[in-house]
Amino acid sequence: MPSTGAVALLLPLWACIATAFHPSVTMHLASNRQQSGFYPSCTPAFRPPAGTAATPPLSSQRLLPAAKTPIPARMSPNSIQGAPGSSEKGNAALRKALGGARSGALRAFSRLGRGACTLAWAVLASLVSSMLWQLPVQAAAAAGPAARTSVDLVAKFQKNWRLYVTIPVIAGLLNWATNNLAVKMIFYPMEFFGLKIKTWPETPLGLIGWTGIVPVKAKPMATRMVRMVTSSLIDVEEVFKRLSPEEISRLLVPGLDKELRKISKEVGAGFLYDGPGGYELVQGVAKGFVASFTRKLQGSIKDVWDLEGMVVSAMVQDKRLLVELFQECGRDELKFVVRSGLYFGFLLGIFQMLVWVAWDPWWSLAVGGALVGYLTNLFAIKSIFEPVQPITLPGGFKIQGLFLTRQNEVATAFAKFLSERILTSEKIWDELLYGSRKDKFEKLLLTHADEYVRELPGGSLVQAGVGREKFDLIVETHVMQGLRDEVSRLHPYVDKTLELEKEMELKMRQMSSEEFEGVLHPIFEEDELTLIACGAVLGLTAGFLQSLAPY
Length: 551
Prior knowledge:
Layout: H1 4-20, H2 77-81, H3 88-143, H4 145-159, H5 161-164, H6 166-187, E1 193-195, E2 205-206, E3 208-210, H7 213-216, H8 218-233, H9 236-240, H10 245-252, H11 257-266, H12 270-274, H13 278-299, H14 301-304, H15 307-317, H16 319-329, H17 331-358, H18 364-385, E4 391-392, E5 398-399, H19 407-421, H20 425-434, H21 438-454, H22 459-466, H23 468-486, H24 491-498, H25 500-509, H26 513-517, H27 522-525, H28 528-547
Helix pairs in contact: 1-3, 3-4, 6-17, 6-18, 6-28, 8-15, 10-13, 11-23, 13-21, 15-16, 16-19, 17-18, 18-28, 19-25, 21-23
């Protein structure tokens, strides 16, 4: 196998020789050859006049094989006139003979001259390339030990370059895998996985095992998020005032007929319900009661509806709700975290490779792998939320946290998810009737029933005849039961009228960057260090395995 220097010397020689004697190459003569009597065929300005015969040379006159196309030739007028006693026929023959001989000779000398020049250029090019090839070594010898060391490093890299280039490739693939794993560990598993020897409250890492960060910290995360919702997005009293008391009573009362009949009988007024016009009378009283109670409920909604407790309870009981909410709102950012592991891991891996070529103790790849994993995860997480405010760079470019640039898009996704999955009419009424403040709701209902009946004609007599305790029992039993049974009649109207999705989306779009950051940042803030350390540990392990390769 020839050495690299020999190849550098031989290749120019071979190329130049092949070019010199290639039959398709032509030589163009200069214009100062006009008086010689021979003119290059490629120069239109010096072509012979039309009708002039192109005379090929005789076989005996050819120094080289005949050209594929004849070469035109003619004598100068002076030379023709200078031949004494020659006839026109003799002149033509002489012109043909001389033209053929000179044409063949010229072509032969042209090719030989071209070959000689080309060979000279080949030798010169070979010498120059050989000198350039030896230049680094000569420069290193002249410069001293430092330069010689750099040449040694290049030689070291060239010797095992296939192994060295695997370092940035593996760094990129490894950090892609570790970041993908880190994103999965944010949300999964929903329950502790491992040996449950020792765990700590709201801590994903057990002694031997792991729980997803979001599931294990669902309560503090949901609490923080819902406080942002109630303080910035929803004014509960304002929202509930959109409900029409008359419309609520119109929808609800027809379904209370069964319970109203029972109430009439228990208070001793059953004859009125069954008598002429009794049904219309009872229905009218019931509608008035429901409408007036709705107004009272609108004014006391914060006392009887625990919005924070409702949302937190829903997300703690079904942790998938919080997981899906964060995944929906942070879809693009989570993808970026995974992809950035590949990009940044590869770039940092190049630096890691250069360090390993120059300095290769067995542990340097392991430490470098840990550093690459740490920096990759740190940069990925920080770039999602920082800088909070846009920064304008020279040239008009702006940089801002990736999540913050998608505020409008996230606002739409967040409002849609919350209004369709959590803050629905069904769940709101379930919280009012069965939730943590149901006692306050019932008390509000009893108080209003007592006041309302007392204001009816003969209402005080009815209460006195029945007794206060029985009256409260009737209201608590039949009115609450009727409301629980028939509240589903209200859901379409309530969902449409409250317009929670539109309300939250509009206000979230108007939030400052600092406020908006708090929507998604909690899932990273809670265990940001854990995620970064995870990348560092996995990078350390992979780097150690790489150091075992025969570099």
